[in-house]
Design brief:
Blueprint lengths: L15 E2 L4 E5 L12 E5 L3 E5 L6 H10 L4 E6 L11 H8 L3 E3 L25 E2 L4 E5 L2 E7 L8 E5 L4 E5 L17 H12 L5 E4 L8 H24 L5 H8 L8 H17 L3 E3 L10 E3 L3
Parallel strand pairs: 4-5, 5-6, 6-7, 11-12
Antiparallel strand pairs: 1-2, 2-3, 3-4, 8-9, 9-10, 10-11, 13-14
Length: 299
């Protein structure tokens, strides 16, 4: 079982000093995929970096600018192109002149039958490409960009060397598992990215939504175990004769709010694609889909 952490004190628009180098301002955009809202991080003193400016809300921009009043925003870092993370990067750049950093979208999404996540922000293109990693530094702070595809193809986490901390975006969150929606999301890539982060032994994870994760190692292992348990459940469903994702989701996610079933279906699809790629299952379609028929492979 994942040891979720969900309780923390905050006030919308207030800048809270959460570590010696880190301040956090939370946008008023709560929801089933954003929890209490987008947590924008300000790192450093005097000359600062801003991570995940958030949704294009004028009051959130005002709160960020108030938090850095008298300081210089030197860098704007974005973890990925979802509409709760990147749209405010443009207005913040206009207000401060700071360059933006991130990874361009690799697989622009097509229209989805059901909306299960905030829309992609197709308008954001970073000034500096960190798809292959890189280092961004300022007075008293150093970031290493760590590509972590999975939740999206262009997801990047940022390691703060001075505190051995990781800004984990939506890759690893304390309050919930992340949504993985194919084709931009990739379950196999997600597993590899989890291993990459686990190997770094960070002291603290700072997700964009919710409170920090103070014990990353067991938390990441629990996430992996949870995903592997979902795959075991899928194989069990197939062995019982359930052949579609639509049949499986109400059984596998019986304890989950039904409003999240569309997201759960996408997550199951991501597992199906991974299992089909490993030859464990077979699909009625060349590319596994939400309406495909599935069966166990004869091996």
């Amino acid at each position: 079982m994942i040891p979720f952490v969900r309780d923390f004190e905050f006030e919308y628009g207030r800048a809270d000093q959460v570590s010696p180098l880190i301040r956090r301002v939370i946008a008023n955009n709560p929801g089933p995929f954003t929890f209490t809202g987008t947590g924008t991080y300000i790192v450093g003193h005097g000359e600062v970096a801003v991570i995940d400016p958030g949704p294009d809300l004028p009051e959130h921009l005002e709160a960020i600018l108030a938090a850095v009043n008298g300081e210089t925003v030197r860098t704007i870092l974005v973890t990925h192109n979802h509409a709760d993370h990147s749209p405010l990067a443009g207005p913040l750049q206009q207000a401060t002149g700071a360059p933006t950093y991130g990874c361009p979208m690799r697989h622009p999404p097509g229209a989805m039958a059901v909306k299960v996540e905030d829309d992609h922000d197709l308008g954001f293109v970073a000034d500096h490409d960190l798809c292959g990693g890189g280092v961004v530094s300022g007075p008293g702070w150093t970031f290493e960009a760590i590509p972590t595809p999975g939740h999206t193809s262009n997801h990047v986490c940022y390691a703060l060397g001075e505190e051995n901390a990781l800004f984990s975006g939506d890759h690893i969150m304390g309050w919930s598992t992340t949504v993985i929606v194919p084709p931009d999301g990739d379950m196999d890539a997600y597993f590899h990215s989890l291993d990459r982060i686990a190997a770094r032994q960070f002291k603290t994870l700072w997700p964009t939504h919710g409170p920090p994760v103070r014990e990353p190692a067991p938390f990441i292992e629990a996430h992996k175990a949870h995903r592997l348990e979902r795959e075991r459940q899928i194989l069990e469903m197939l062995s019982r004769g359930l052949s579609t994702i639509g049949d499986m989701v109400p059984v596998m996610y019986a304890a989950v709010d039904k409003r999240l079933y569309p997201a759960a279906a996408q997550s199951v699809l991501a597992h199906m694609i991974r299992l089909a790629g490993e030859g464990v299952i077979a699909s009625s379609d060349p590319r596994p889909g939400l309406t495909s028929l599935y069966r166990l492979s004869a091996r």
